[in-house]
Recover the amino acids of this structure.
């Protein structure tokens, strides 16, 4: 069985299908009235965690231990008073490693990370990032200064990464105790110095699960790959991609040379280029890109948000995307062909797919 | 006892309870006794700017704010600010 957790501006929609990933049944909507920036199913215990926001009632996290039937809100989230910062939004929940019982990570704005050690009941701000020595050089962009990417190295228990818009990528070698900027080679074309140590606008960061020294990054200024844990980045577009600008990113869970992006025209025209919903795939580590949009709508001028792209671990693996126009598209064959699983949903903010026994 | 009435989202978050009867000396005391206190006050203890509070139909801003005294029979109504036509 496969579940797609679709976070929207108006609640959480869950779609369920068998492993053939064809006929989808809706569960929900859940969390009615909340903007669900991201929701994830924790493979360790089957609980769902959702980063939930309201323009009136603030930012929080909800969790469900019964697949969405009932929900509990986390204890109040907050940042240390001496930081002068206040929590603006919650953006991304990342379950801890298999042997880290009860641990979860939560990214938010303004450029903050929280850790829970009790399954999401309570959250504590990660002080080393709140007071990072470079914070005064982070400059929020249109999307705020959101910590949207949290990646754990599956082979090194103390190594993890965060991606923060308008701040860049940071790596920790001590489980979040300290953070080193990892932005060398990534451009910040909007700054006087286009290659500063920090200030790059990463839009999405992923670690390859089979080859965790390999990182992929969709940035405001290009698509990048690193083969050395973010020490150095290589810019990859100009070889089949219509644009280096975009937000979402997906991988092949078994093949480290394969990645998917959904480019947009540019920062000033945030729709897919060439009048189509274009998914682009590389199979040679970014040396070349090809259109992988068989079955996706055309003509189309749409947008896929940074969390609106996901992949599962089945064989063949599935790729999933949700549009701001409220459609969910599924490829059950690694991007070879696509079909629409749902439409007419509220604007989609996030898609997470998980195979569930 | 003062009565506090919650809008639907807050009532859901309060376990489905929309009406609370509370013994409180001020509006602040009444609101801080609610199980959704984190949703109406921010992390610094300030009332969130888009949460409107009416005491017997009068905006808290036109009374004494959160320190408005309660005699014991008031109706306190919480309303999310009207914001139709925005991006939501």
């Amino acid at each position: 069985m496969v579940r797609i957790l679709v976070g929207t501006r108006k609640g959480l929609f869950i779609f369920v299908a068998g492993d053939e990933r064809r006929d989808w049944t809706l569960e929900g909507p859940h969390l009615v009235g909340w903007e669900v920036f991201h929701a994830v199913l924790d493979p360790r215990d089957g609980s769902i965690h959702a980063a939930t926001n309201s323009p009136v009632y603030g930012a929080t996290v909800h969790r469900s231990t019964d697949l969405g039937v009932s929900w509990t809100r986390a204890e109040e989230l907050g940042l240390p008073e001496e930081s002068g910062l206040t929590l603006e939004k919650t953006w991304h929940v990342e379950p801890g490693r298999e042997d880290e019982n009860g641990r979860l990570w939560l990214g938010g704005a303004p450029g903050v990370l929280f850790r829970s050690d009790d399954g999401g009941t309570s959250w504590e701000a990660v002080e080393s990032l709140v007071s990072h020595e470079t914070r005064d050089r982070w400059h929020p962009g249109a999307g705020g200064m959101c910590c949207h990417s949290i990646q754990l190295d599956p082979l090194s228990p103390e190594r993890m990464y965060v991606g923060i818009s308008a701040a860049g990528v940071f790596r920790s070698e001590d489980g979040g105790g300290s953070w080193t900027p990892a932005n060398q080679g990534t451009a910040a074309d909007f700054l006087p110095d286009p290659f500063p140590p920090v200030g790059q606008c990463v839009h999405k960061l992923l670690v390859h699960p089979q080859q965790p020294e390999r990182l992929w990054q969709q940035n405001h200024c290009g698509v990048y790959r690193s083969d050395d844990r973010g020490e150095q980045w290589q810019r990859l577009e100009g070889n089949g991609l219509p644009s280096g600008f975009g937000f979402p990113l997906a991988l092949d869970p078994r093949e480290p040379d394969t990645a998917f992006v959904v480019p947009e025209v540019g920062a000033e025209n945030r729709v897919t280029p060439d009048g189509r919903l274009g998914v682009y795939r590389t199979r040679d580590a970014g040396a070349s890109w090809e259109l992988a949009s068989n079955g996706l709508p055309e003509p189309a001028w749409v947008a896929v948000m940074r969390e609106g792209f996901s992949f599962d671990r089945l064989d063949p693996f599935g790729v999933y995307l949700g549009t701001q126009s409220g459609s969910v598209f599924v490829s059950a064959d690694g991007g070879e062909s696509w079909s629409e699983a749902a439409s007419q949903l509220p604007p989609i903010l996030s898609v997470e797919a998980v195979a569930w026994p | 006892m003062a009565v506090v009435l919650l809008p639907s989202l807050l009532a859901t978050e309060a376990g489905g309870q929309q009406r609370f009867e509370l013994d409180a000396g001020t509006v602040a005391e009444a609101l801080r006794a609610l199980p959704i206190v984190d949703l109406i006050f921010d992390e610094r203890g300030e009332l969130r700017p888009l949460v409107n509070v009416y005491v017997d139909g009068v905006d808290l801003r036109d009374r004494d704010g959160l320190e408005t005294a309660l005699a014991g029979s008031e109706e306190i109504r919480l309303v999310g600010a009207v914001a139709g036509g925005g991006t939501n």
